[in-house]
Amino acid sequence: MKALLLLVAGIGGLLEAVAPRRAVALWTRALYRNAGEAEPREWTYAAAKAEGALVAAGALVGLFRLATADDDAASAAE
After folding, report:
1. Residues near 50 by beta carbon (within 8 Å), at least 6 away in sequence
2. Domain residue ranges in the chain
3. DSSP letters along 5-41, please?
4. What's the predicted TM-score (pTM) here?
5. 3-class SS at 51?
6. What is the rounded distance in angstroms from the CA atom of residue 40 to the CA atom of residue 44?
7. How many CA atoms lie within 13 A of 29 on its CB side?
8. pLDDT digits (tens, 9 = 90+) for 32-54
9. Spatial separation of the C-alpha atoms in residues 24 and 49, rounded to whole Å
Protein backbone atom coordinates (compact mmCIF):
# COMPACT_ATOMS: atom_id res chain seq x y z
CA MET A 1 0.00 0.00 0.00
CA LYS A 2 2.85 2.35 0.84
CA ALA A 3 4.52 1.68 -2.51
CA LEU A 4 1.29 2.46 -4.36
CA LEU A 5 0.91 5.74 -2.47
CA LEU A 6 4.50 6.70 -3.27
CA LEU A 7 3.96 5.81 -6.92
CA VAL A 8 0.83 7.98 -7.17
CA ALA A 9 2.62 10.88 -5.46
CA GLY A 10 5.58 10.50 -7.80
CA ILE A 11 3.39 10.52 -10.90
CA GLY A 12 1.51 13.57 -9.62
CA GLY A 13 4.76 15.37 -8.89
CA LEU A 14 6.13 14.49 -12.31
CA LEU A 15 3.01 15.82 -14.02
CA GLU A 16 3.22 19.02 -11.99
CA ALA A 17 6.90 19.46 -12.86
CA VAL A 18 6.28 18.88 -16.57
CA ALA A 19 3.13 21.01 -16.91
CA PRO A 20 3.09 23.60 -14.09
CA ARG A 21 0.68 25.98 -15.86
CA ARG A 22 -1.92 23.22 -16.22
CA ALA A 23 -1.46 22.14 -12.60
CA VAL A 24 -1.88 25.71 -11.34
CA ALA A 25 -4.99 26.14 -13.51
CA LEU A 26 -6.51 22.92 -12.13
CA TRP A 27 -5.81 23.86 -8.51
CA THR A 28 -7.11 27.39 -9.08
CA ARG A 29 -10.36 26.07 -10.54
CA ALA A 30 -10.72 23.62 -7.65
CA LEU A 31 -10.05 26.14 -4.87
CA TYR A 32 -11.66 29.41 -5.98
CA ARG A 33 -15.29 30.23 -6.76
CA ASN A 34 -14.37 32.76 -9.46
CA ALA A 35 -11.32 31.10 -10.94
CA GLY A 36 -11.56 33.19 -14.11
CA GLU A 37 -10.78 36.35 -12.15
CA ALA A 38 -7.73 34.88 -10.39
CA GLU A 39 -4.41 35.67 -12.04
CA PRO A 40 -1.41 33.86 -10.59
CA ARG A 41 1.90 35.68 -10.53
CA GLU A 42 4.72 34.45 -12.77
CA TRP A 43 6.75 32.99 -9.89
CA THR A 44 3.83 30.67 -9.11
CA TYR A 45 4.68 28.50 -12.12
CA ALA A 46 8.33 28.23 -11.11
CA ALA A 47 7.27 27.31 -7.58
CA ALA A 48 4.86 24.67 -8.91
CA LYS A 49 7.61 23.20 -11.09
CA ALA A 50 10.01 23.07 -8.13
CA GLU A 51 7.36 21.54 -5.89
CA GLY A 52 6.57 18.87 -8.48
CA ALA A 53 10.24 18.02 -8.87
CA LEU A 54 10.68 17.73 -5.09
CA VAL A 55 7.61 15.53 -4.71
CA ALA A 56 8.75 13.27 -7.56
CA ALA A 57 12.27 13.04 -6.12
CA GLY A 58 10.93 12.30 -2.64
CA ALA A 59 8.70 9.56 -4.03
CA LEU A 60 11.63 8.03 -5.90
CA VAL A 61 13.76 8.04 -2.75
CA GLY A 62 10.90 6.50 -0.78
CA LEU A 63 10.37 3.77 -3.37
CA PHE A 64 14.11 3.06 -3.45
CA ARG A 65 14.28 2.78 0.34
CA LEU A 66 11.21 0.57 0.37
CA ALA A 67 12.70 -1.73 -2.27
CA THR A 68 16.10 -1.98 -0.58
CA ALA A 69 14.57 -2.51 2.87
CA ASP A 70 12.79 -5.62 1.59
CA ASP A 71 16.05 -6.94 0.16
CA ASP A 72 17.92 -6.23 3.42
CA ALA A 73 15.23 -7.95 5.51
CA ALA A 74 15.25 -11.00 3.23
CA SER A 75 19.04 -11.34 3.33
CA ALA A 76 19.09 -10.90 7.12
CA ALA A 77 16.47 -13.63 7.57
CA GLU A 78 18.62 -16.10 5.63
Report:
1. none
2. 1-71
3. HHHHHHHHHHHHHH-HHHHHHHHHHHH-SSTTT----
4. 0.80
5. helix
6. 6
7. 5
8. 888 888 889 999 999 999 999 99
9. 10
